[in-house]
Automatic annotation (TrEMBL):
Bias type Low complexity, positions: 313-325
Sequence segments annotated as region (Disordered): 298-331
PANTHER family associated with the record: PROTEIN CBG26694, PROTEIN NYNRIN-LIKE
InterPro entries: Integrase_cat-core, Retrovirus_Pol_polyprotein, RNaseH-like_sf, RNaseH_sf, SH3_Tf2-1
Coiled-coil region list: none
GO biological process: DNA integration
Name this protein carries in UniProt: Integrase catalytic domain-containing protein
Species of the source: Phytophthora cactorum
Annotated Integrase catalytic domain residues: 1-163
SUPFAM superfamilies cross-referenced by the UniProt entry: Ribonuclease H-like (SSF53098)
Length: 331
C-alpha cells in the first residue's frame, strides 16, 4: 500500500476472535484503522460473519462517519474473500489490498492495534473477562485519545485537529467523585438517590478510562521492547510441535493456580505445545481454565527448560488451541 495524503483515504481492517462469550453473545471484535491518523473503530461481533454482515458493519462504523476509502488493507479472512464483499467494492471503486503468504505484513497496522487492544482488555477485564464487550467503547476512546509514538499526536487530533474533552477527575477515597467542578455539580443533584446513581455511573466509567490509560502505557512499553527486539533480530521463532513457555502475566490472575499467584512466581509457565503458526502468531494447546484473550507472540519463550506445567498445579482440563486473533475449540 502506498502513501496516503488525508485521513480515511486508506484503511486497514481485521478480526479478533476467541474472546469469552458475554451476555450479548459476542466472541470477537472487528477492527478498522485509518492508516494516516491511526484512529480506530472497534465493533463487537457474535462470531465469524459473512461478507454481507461485514459490509454492513463497514458501512455503519466507517462510511457513516468518514465516507468511502480508496483502499482497504486486510488479511485473507473468508468473509473478506467472499464474492459479495469483493463485488460490493468493485461497485464502490475501492481497492482491496489483501496480504499474501509472501507478504504477510500488508495489514501490519491492525496487527499492532490488535496487540495493544488485547493487552488493554486483558488488564481492564482481568476480574470480569466476560464484560469485555461492555468496556470496548471506552477502550476505543482511550486508544484514540492516546499519543502515538509514530505521529507524536493522538489519533483524535490528527483526524480532526482537536482533542476531546475528558473529565478524568480522580474518585474520592472509597467511591464517588471529588475535586474540581464535577464534584461541585454532583453535590447539587437531588434527590440523593439520583445523585448516587449519577455518581456510580460516572465513577465507574472514569475508573475504566484510567485503567485503560495505565494499561496502554504498560502495553506500549512492552510493544516498544518487542519492536526493538525484532529490529535486533532477537525474537524467537518456533515451529509446530515445539514446546514454549507463556509469560505468567498473560493469563488473568484468577485463571492461574495458587502456585503462580505469589510474588515469587516464575516469569513463565508451561510448557505448551505449538500446534499452528502464522508469522509471529502461534497457536498454543492451553488448559481450559487458562482460556483468556488472545496471546501475543512476544509473551513466548523456548520451553526446553520448563519451570512447571500448570496441568500439574490443578489445571487438569485441556482446551482447544488459541492464537493471537483466533481461538479454536476441540470437541
Amino acid at each position: 500500500m502506498g502513501l496516503v495524503s488525508c485521513a480515511w483515504q486508506s484503511i486497514s481492517m481485521d478480526f479478533v476472535f476467541g474472546l469469552p462469550k458475554g451476555k450479548a453473545g459476542n466472541t470477537g471484535i472487528m477492527v478498522f484503522v485509518d492508516r494516516l491518523s491511526e484512529l480506530d473503530h472497534l465493533a463487537a461481533v457474535p462470531g465469524p460473519i459473512d461478507g454481507e454482515g461485514t459490509a454492513s458493519l463497514f458501512l455503519d462504523r466507517v462510511c457513516r462517519q468518514h465516507g468511502l476509502p480508496e483502499a482497504i488493507g486486510s488479511d485473507q479472512d473468508l468473509c473478506l474473500t467472499a464474492k459479495v464483499w469483493k463485488s460490493l467494492f468493485q461497485v464502490f471503486d475501492t481497492r482491496l489490498d489483501m496480504s499474501t503468504a509472501d507478504h504477510p505484513q500488508t495489514d501490519g497496522q491492525t496487527e499492532r492495534v490488535n496487540r495493544v487492544m488485547e493487552d488493554i482488555l486483558r488488564s481492564v477485564c482481568s476480574k470480569t473477562p466476560r464484560r469485555w464487550s461492555e468496556m470496548l467503547p471506552l477502550v476505543e476512546f482511550a486508544l484514540n485519545n492516546a499519543v502515538h509514538a509514530s505521529t507524536g499526536f493522538a489519533p483524535f487530533y490528527v483526524n480532526g485537529l482537536a482533542n476531546p474533552r475528558v473529565p478524568l477527575t480522580p474518585p474520592r477515597r472509597g467511591s464517588g467523585l471529588s475535586g474540581g467542578g464535577i464534584a461541585d455539580r454532583l453535590v447539587a443533584i437531588s434527590p440523593v438517590a439520583v445523585r448516587k446513581q449519577v455518581d456510580d455511573f460516572v465513577s465507574l466509567r472514569l475508573s475504566v478510562l484510567r485503567q485503560v490509560r495505565d494499561a496502554m502505557t504498560e502495553s506500549q512499553a512492552l510493544q516498544k521492547e518487542y519492536a526493538d527486539a525484532q529490529g535486533r533480530g532477537n525474537v524467537e521463532r518456533f515451529e509446530v510441535g515445539d514446546l514454549v513457555l507463556l509469560n505468567a502475566k498473560t493469563p488473568p490472575t484468577h485463571t492461574v493456580s495458587a502456585v503462580f499467584k505469589t510474588k515469587l512466581r516464575p516469569r513463565f509457565i508451561g510448557p505448551f505445545k505449538v500446534v499452528a503458526k502464522k508469522g509471529l502468531a502461534y497457536t498454543l494447546d492451553l488448559p481450559k481454565k487458562m482460556r483468556t484473550h488472545p496471546v501475543s507472540a512476544e509473551a513466548l519463550e523456548p520451553g526446553q527448560h520448563a519451570v512447571a506445567d500448570p496441568r500439574e498445579a490443578g489445571q487438569q482440563q485441556v482446551a482447544g488451541p488459541q492464537v493471537a486473533g483466533k481461538t479454536q475449540q476441540r470437541d
